[in-house]
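Hi there, hope your week has been kind to you so far. Thanks so much in advance, here it is:
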Amino acid sequence: MIAPPLTRLAVSPARRALAAVGQFCAQNDMQRNLRTCVDLIGGAARRGVRMLFLPEASDFVAETRNQPAELAQGLDGQFLREIQQAAKDNGIWVSLGIHEQPLTTGMPFNTNAVVSDDGTLVSVYRKLHMFDVNVKDGPRLQESAVSSRGERVADVVDTPVGKLGLSICYDLRFPEISQLLRQRGAQLLCYPSAFTEMTGAAHWETLLRARAVETQTYVFAAAQIGRHNAKRSSYGDAMIVDPWGVVVARCSRNSSEPTLAVAEVDLDYLEKVRREMPVFDHRRTDLFPDYAA
């Protein structure tokens, strides 16, 4: 299996542009999920959206421990190729979560792939933190048993809506990544996710708004929602948060039907927030130089 090369594009973002997050309930049927993704891409493009963010595991949500390895495709696989074609056909950028089959042996990566409006694969981020938890009366999951962890923070990506930093779901609980991405120039952060019902109700919005406030970035959180199978369901509540921590768009939690939430990214407003509250200028990097490097 040969990985397609990544292409860094020179992109000048508009000062104001529309972006969207998508929400749907993936199952272990990749063709069904692909049709849903393509429909959301087309729907976003018709609304004038420049970049669409789709959830973690947009390709499939497994029913068994064996399925991630059985169903995962490489970056040159049919699922991602179809997404690239849909992005090109609709003239829209797309970020989405997929299971990525590694080039060598091993478990698949939990990957955030970014595709440009000409269908080019421009960035790939592999989830760093594995969701291994055992919450009393709540979820018992061991992601490390079915996924390989990534080993690097991806470079910030130039997009039509701003400079984008990539993470995935459980990474949201580790602010070191978002701080590093902001330091590298990120104006936007994305967290394609599939939060559990319990952890979503407890922490989802709080964490997203905290990351937005801390980094003074727009935060895009596409989400899985509803019952995927007999053993697993997701919280939903896909949303967009602005650099002041305000939720400016969100999808309904009342339905697991595919939906979009759209908001304007205003880079002048972002700069105003950073100028009036210059928290990055006030950091005591003399006391934590390694963290702030």
